Amino acid sequence: MEGIPHPIPRTVEEVFNDFKGRRAGLIKALTADVEKFYQQSDPEKENLCLYGLPNETWEVNLPAEEVPPELPEPALGINFARDGMQEKDWLSLVAVHSDSWLLSVAFYFGARFGFGKSERKRLFQMINDLPTVFEVVTGAVKQAKDEATAPNNNGKNKSSGRMQSRQSEPQHKGVKMPAPKEEDDSGGEEEEEDDEQGATLCGACGDNYGNDEFWICCDICERWFHGKCVKITPAKAEHIKQYKCPSCSSKRAKV
After folding, report:
1. Fewest CB atoms less than 10 Å from the CB: which of 126, 132, 143, 211?
2. Which residues touch 29 (CB under 8 Å, ≥6 apart)?
C-alpha cells in the first residue's frame, strides 16, 4: 500500500509520466536492487505486494485495507512463491504481473477522468513504445540487435574475452556512447528508424543510450547498463576483470 500521497494524474501526459515513474521503480527492484527485493519478499511474512511509485522508487508492502482500494492492486502474495521457484523464473513471474498492474493503473486513471477513444489510443501508443518490465528483466529486448549495435571500443577499460570471441573487433566493457552519425539526405530517415528499433537499452532502467554516458556490459548475461544505474564509475571499472551485474551476482551467491 502506498503510504506517501502523490499528485493524481489527470491528463494523458500526466498519466504517462506516472506510468514511467512506477515502471522505473519496478525495474529497479527487479534488477539493480534485486538482492534487497529478494530479502524483503520473505515467505514467512503475510501476503505481500510489489509497488512501483511515481517517484521511480519501489516498496514491498501489505495490500490496501480499504475495499475497494483507491487504485488497482498488484499481484498478492508474491513472497509465497519465492522459494518454490528458480529465482530467474520467480523474477520473470513478478515482472509479468507488474506489467499487468502498470497497465491497469494507467487505464484506471483514464477511465476515472473520462479519456476518450483518441486519448486512450495515444496513451497506449506512448506506453507501447517502452519495453515491458518483463522484457527488461529477462533481457528479451531485441537481444540480437543489441549485440550488433553495442557501444564501440573507444573506452579505456579492459575488453571482455567472451565479447571478443563474438565480434571481429575487441568490445570494451565500459564505454561512453559515441555521438550520433550524420545521416545522408537519401534514406536518412529510414536509417534513423532502423537505429531506433535496434537501440541498445539499459538492463536496469530500460532507457536508450545518451551522449557521453558511461556504460558497462555484464560478462555473464551480456546486458548493458548505465554506470550510474549499477553504481559503477569509469575509474572503478578500470579495476574490474570480470563484471557481474547485480542480478547475476545475486544468482551466483545463492548457488
Report:
1. 211
2. 36, 37, 50, 52, 58, 60
